[in-house]
Amino acid sequence: MGKRSIVPFGPQHPVLPEPIHLDLVLEDEKVVDVLPEIGFIHRGLEGLVSKRDFKDYVYVAERVCGICSFMHGMGYCESVEHGMGIEIPRRADYLRTIWAEMSRVHSHLLWLGLLADGFGFEALFNECWRIREDVLDMLEATTGGRCIFSVNNVGGVVRDVDNATLLGISRKMDEIGARLKEISSTFLKDYTVKSRLVGVGILSHEAALELGAVGPMMRASGWDIDMRTTGYSAYGDLDLNINTSNDCDCYARTEVRINEIFTAIDLIKQAIDKIPNGNIIVPVKGNPKSEFLIRLEQPRGEAVYYTKGNGTKYLDRFRVRTPTFANIPAMAEIMRGCEVADIPMIILTIDPCISCTER
Amino acid sequence: MAVTYAVQPLSVNELLNQSLSLRGEGWRLCQILSVCQGKGYELLYTFAKEHEMLNFQVNIEENTVVPSITPVFACAFLYENEIAELFGVNIEGIQVSYERKLYKLDVETPFKKTGK
Q: Alpha-carbon distance A318 to A161, whole Å?
């Protein structure tokens, strides 16, 4: 056994957009143990639910995170609506689905750019974010916001999108798909990129289940689990192809996310083809009295939203279990036995979102 | 497929055995949460298998000692540390315990509604 040393990693580090700290126990260059530490940006947003009207709280829920903001608002609303037995208009379901999938596209493109930046491929980083800008432009045109949209409300959505604009989005998505196809070959076939990703950070099929991994992290270890197949919102009307890989490494997680962008584009186009006309919101009468727990598929994986009412306008509890929170144990496990130089790639391929995690 | 939610009661004494049994059947731990209820707490344990979901509600008094399920589901350590720190639930035997310093808060048990 070589001499052991403990190297602190983070909370400030070039590959970390948000703060997480790891104590890496090293033997020479090999990582033999990891202790993750969070708690640098805990805001207690869940506690605020007992002080805000449940209809207004959706704007707090959206601010849990700046990347998957839309889906936090959507998850909160879906949980309250199911608990109160509110059936929202189908057009609102479709609009939520379209915005959710556009959020997935921009989130995955943001992540691809960060990954490229992490392994030193600046031109690839620029190209990913250039494509992402077009998605953000479409989100801004349809919601008024680029990251935080504030279009969800308990009972539906507050903005409609005319059908001509939706057709324009559908055409633009084809263009985005074509541009993504060009750069995806660099991610998946380039020798230097593969040398950083293939065989690195292996999360076995069994370990993914035992450690409670979710989302692309789990699907890259051979599990075809995707919460969208439970049929929430408009997903029950759409044909969903679950992207998986059996390679279990950083490369597999990259491949799964790239394929998920193409799937999201397909879902957006399907939803635009099938969206019905009609209302976008129904009036909400009374206050929540019951509890409900719903699972949504965020860009980073399964997220859990729980709400519990007490008959007043203030909820007893709102709980969100984010995908990164669930993926931290798996991340720590796959670092054991790796080289210290691989740590940044492993962290990046779980696509960590620490603001979500700490809420 | 309709989105549904159902919950089953579970006693704190059965928690470990039930967890062990679920793990043997291939269920994964999905989440653990706590809600203040009167002078005690409701703990909600969610397990998932493919797309199925099981929810178990464990009602406990303020000072009840809850066994950690980390010997069965190692990934439970983050959930249990969070509940202990934010609500003050007494969870015994967490395999990676942060001693109520997961979030390093100045305020002790900020989400606890009783006993203040």
A: 30
Residue B21's contacts (CB-CB under 8 Å, 6 or more residues apart) are: none
Q: What is the pLDDT of residue A1?
A: 64
User: β-pairing, A152-153 with A156-157?
Assistant: antiparallel
Strands B8-9 and B52-60, by their bridges, are: parallel
Question: Around Cβ A7, how many Cβ atoms within 10 Å?
Answer: 12
Condensed to tens digits (0 to 9), the pLDDT of residues A2-57 reads: 788 888 887 888 777 778 888 888 888 888 888 888 877 788 787 787 888 888 99
B87 shares contact with chain A (CB less than 8 Å): no
User: Is A316 near chain B, with CB under 8 Å?
Assistant: yes
Q: Do B103 and A227 touch (CB under 8 A)?
A: no
The answer to whether A302 contacts chain B (CB < 8 Å) is yes
Percent of chain B with pLDDT over 90: 53
What gap in Å lies between CA A307 and CA A324, rounded to an integer? 20
Q: Quick check: B81 contacting A, CB < 8 Å?
A: no
CB contact under 8 A, B33 and A229: no
C-alpha distance from A242 to closest chain B C-alpha (Å): 13
Q: How far is B13 from chain A (nearest CA, A)?
A: 23
Give the pairing of strands A21-27 and B52-60. Answer: unpaired
Query: How many other C-beta atoms are found inside a 10 Å radius of the C-beta of residue A304?
Result: 25
Task: State how far the Cα of A355 lies from the Cα of A72, in Å rounded to an integer.
Answer: 12
A304 touches chain B (CB under 8 A): yes
- CB-nearest to A212 from B29, B50, B51 is B29
B39 shares contact with chain A (CB less than 8 Å): no
CA A7 – CA A91 distance, rounded (Å): 53
pLDDT beyond 50 at B10:
yes
Per-residue pLDDT tens digits for A335-352: 888 888 888 888 888 888
B78: nearest CB among A78, A225, A329: A329
Query: CA-to-CA distance for A234 and A95, rounded, in angstroms?
Result: 9
Using the predicted structure, report yes or no on whether residue B116 has a pLDDT greater than 60. no
Mean pLDDT for chain A overall: 90
How close, in Å, is residue A75 to chain B by CA atoms?
Answer: 13
Using the Cβ of B102 and the Cβ atoms of chain A, whether some distance falls under 8 Å is answered with yes
Residue written as token pair 């997220």: A303
Full set of structural domains in chain A with CATH: 54-358 (1.10.645.10)
HEC string of A312-348? Answer: CCCCCEEEEECHHHHHHHHHHHHHCCCEHHHHHHHHH
Q: B79: burial class by Cβ within 10 Å (0-12, 13-18, 19+)?
A: buried
pTM: 0.91
